[in-house]
Backbone:
């Protein structure tokens, strides 16, 4: 896969959902992403691991332009995200266009970020009704199907503070799916959960992994083993290793990867 | 020893007799309406100033900062006379009376309301901004990642949550507003204080009349405290975990500091 990264034809290849080319990102003087190149194919599930501060969450957040990039390109479904090119320079897209691009990319956050003033059902239909202009009845019907899928049909009228962390995260996944995204991004979706609730969220994600393209920042190795097509090991803003789960667990190439794995697997 | 004129006192305290006097009747109506309209203006201006202050566009930030700086940094009374007499004498705007059916809205009332509203906006700006900032940044991110624009995210997600933080101090601002309308007396706007002052000019019973007048303001602010407590209890109910102060704590000012 690595040989495709610089090929310009790849941007119009419809089987490629995410493509990042030479992405650089700074926080002040801190170089957090260094010439990142990445491709995610349709229906692929890519898990990103790495020590904290390695840039893995930043990389994820650049994919839906929650973070700006300093150079490089990120394409989702062949469209450049957040910027357009003018005389060889990157110019930030209008807010409206960025919003339109984000509508097709689902994101699940570590802290769930459910809307506390809305019920579970209202959380799910909020964007379909107000962004996609789906008729309310239709949106509610879709939402009920999604609630059933995450196993929370009976919680439709509960407010987030009446739900457990695991339940909130499952609602958050349903909320993202309600926009019928072509790509789902998960930013450490189980890190804020009590241990007994991690399983229920991972189960939902594993089911989802069978049918949608996903990029997941997570250290849940069980999930990675079961659902990931590829694992990326990121350290100090560089993708150190891009390989299959079997390969990574049995025979990591880099010394840094071995060291990191030995830490998180124990 | 001063002879307290109970007849005058009761006459002007008891609404049944006092409100027969057109000065007091229209004065009371003016005080309530001016307070409500000026407060609504203040909230709207405050909202825009708060959004300006938190904006990424520097000129908007400067504009909001200058507005807040000037109107919080100069006396309301001076702003009011400047607006009314200043605009009048330059013929920029004379504040002509407005006739709506039988109702006449005097120029002084218009100018006073405008000054109160604009001044209030500068104070509301800080309250609204604090409300917006109290909402977790993750809320805006979640809304944006669902494809919502800044405006839609603000309107649907951030402001409804900020409202819970904004409403208690907003209630206190309104309490203050009802009392601050008395400044309009200076530009001879016919509110309640003006009405009592006119009557005092005839009767010269300042002790009796102004005690009675103070009772009217006390009644207004007390009624408002009850309404405010109800509103906040309603908000707390939905949120499920906020204990709001009761009417007595509120009146005695044990929870919220007075201005």
Residues:
């Amino acid at each position: 896969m690595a040989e495709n990264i610089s090929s310009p034809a790849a941007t119009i290849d419809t089987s490629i959902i995410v493509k990042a080319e030479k992405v650089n990102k700074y926080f002040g003087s801190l170089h957090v992403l260094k010439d990142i190149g990445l491709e995610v194919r349709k229906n692929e599930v890519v898990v990103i691991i790495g020590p904290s501060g390695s840039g893995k969450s930043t990389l994820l957040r650049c994919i839906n332009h929650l973070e700006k990039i300093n150079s490089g390109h990120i394409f989702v479904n062949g469209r450049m995200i957040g910027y357009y090119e003018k005389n060889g320079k990157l110019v930030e897209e209008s807010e409206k266009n960025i919003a339109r691009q984000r509508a097709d990319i689902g994101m699940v956050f570590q802290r769930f970020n459910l809307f506390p003033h809305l019920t579970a059902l209202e959380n799910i239909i909020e964007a379909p009704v107000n962004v996609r202009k789906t008729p309310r009845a239709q949106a509610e019907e879709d939402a009920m199907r999604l609630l059933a899928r995450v196993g929370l049909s009976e919680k439709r009228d509960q407010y987030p503070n009446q739900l457990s962390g695991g339940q909130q995260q499952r609602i958050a996944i349903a909320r993202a799916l309600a926009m019928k995204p072509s790509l789902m991004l998960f930013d450490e979706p189980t890190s804020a959960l009590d241990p007994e609730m991690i399983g229920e969220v991972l189960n939902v994600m594993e089911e989802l992994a069978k049918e949608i393209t996903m990029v997941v920042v997570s250290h849940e190795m069980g999930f990675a083993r079961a659902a990931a097509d590829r694992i990326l090991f990121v350290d100090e803003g560089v993708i150190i290793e891009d390989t299959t789960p079997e390969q990574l667990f049995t025979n990591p190439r880099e010394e840094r990867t071995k060291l990191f794995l030995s830490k998180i697997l124990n | 020893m001063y002879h307290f004129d109970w007849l005058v006192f009761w006459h002007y305290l008891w609404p049944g007799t006092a409100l027969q006097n057109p000065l007091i009747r229209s004065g009371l109506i003016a005080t309530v309406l001016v307070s409500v309209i000026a407060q609504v203006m203040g909230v709207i201006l405050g909202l825009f100033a708060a959004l300006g202050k938190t904006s990424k566009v520097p000129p908007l930030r400067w504009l909001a900062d200058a507005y807040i700086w000037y109107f919080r940094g100069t006396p309301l009374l001076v702003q009011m006379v400047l607006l009314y007499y200043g605009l009048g004498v330059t013929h920029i705007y004379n504040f002509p009376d407005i006739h709506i059916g039988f109702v006449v809205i005097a120029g002084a009332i218009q100018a006073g309301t405008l000054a109160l509203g604009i001044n209030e906006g500068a104070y509301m700006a800080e309250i609204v901004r604090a409300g917006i900032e109290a909402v977790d940044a993750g809320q805006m991110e979640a809304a944006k990642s669902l494809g919502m624009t800044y405006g839609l995210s603000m309107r649907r997600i951030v402001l409804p949550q900020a409202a819970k933080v904004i409403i208690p101090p907003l209630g206190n601002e309104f309490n203050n507003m009802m009392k601050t309308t008395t400044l309009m007396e200076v530009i001879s706007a016919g509110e309640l204080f003006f009405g009592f002052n006119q009557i005092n000019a005839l009767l010269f019973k300042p002790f009796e009349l102004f005690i009675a007048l103070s009772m009217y303001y006390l009644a207004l602010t007390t009624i408002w405290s009850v309404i405010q407590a109800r509103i906040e209890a309603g908000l707390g109910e939905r949120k499920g975990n906020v204990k709001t102060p009761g009417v007595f704590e509120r009146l005695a000012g044990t929870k919220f500091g007075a201005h």
User: Anything to note?
Assistant: The radius of gyration of chain B is 21 Å. The first strand of chain B starts at residue 98 and ends at 100.
